[in-house]
């Protein structure tokens, strides 16, 4: 999960950077909301990275936040 969240961060920064370098407009509020969700995801995953077992609730929360991040990316226009 940690590597997946870091991959989301790296690819997001690259995509935003490429759009800005191409002089396309970027919705900074949308990017800020997605970044805030990603910081929460990274925080939850980083704190629990050494545990043998993760609670089902926390696992579900990380999955729901990731799905929300995807929905924001796709549906927010």
Description:
The chain has helices at residues 2-21, 28-47, 56-75. The protein has 77 residues and is mostly helical. It has one domain. The relative contact order is 0.16. The model has no long low-confidence stretch (mean pLDDT 94). The two termini are 28 Å apart. Helix 1 packs antiparallel against helix 2 (28-47). It contains 3 helices and no strands.
**What is the overall pLDDT average?**
94
Helix content: over 70%
Query: What is the CA–CA distance across the termini?
Result: 28 Å
Number of domains: 1
Choose one word for the global shape. Answer: elongated
Q: What's the SSE blueprint?
A:
Blueprint: H1 2-21, H2 28-47, H3 56-75
Keywords:
about 0% strand, single chain, elongated, 3 helices, mainly alpha, about 80 residues, about 80% helix
Q: What's the quick description here?
A:
The chain is mainly alpha-helical and 77 residues long. Helix content is 78%, strand content 0%.
């Amino acid at each position: 999960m940690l590597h997946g969240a870091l991959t989301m961060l790296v690819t997001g920064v690259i995509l935003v950077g490429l759009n800005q370098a191409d002089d396309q407009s970027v919705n900074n509020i949308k990017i800020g909301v997605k970044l805030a969700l990603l910081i929460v995801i990274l925080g939850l995953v980083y704190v629990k990275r050494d545990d043998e077992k993760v609670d089902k609730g926390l696992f579900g929360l990380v999955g729901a936040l990731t799905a929300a991040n995807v929905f924001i990316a796709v549906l927010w226009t």
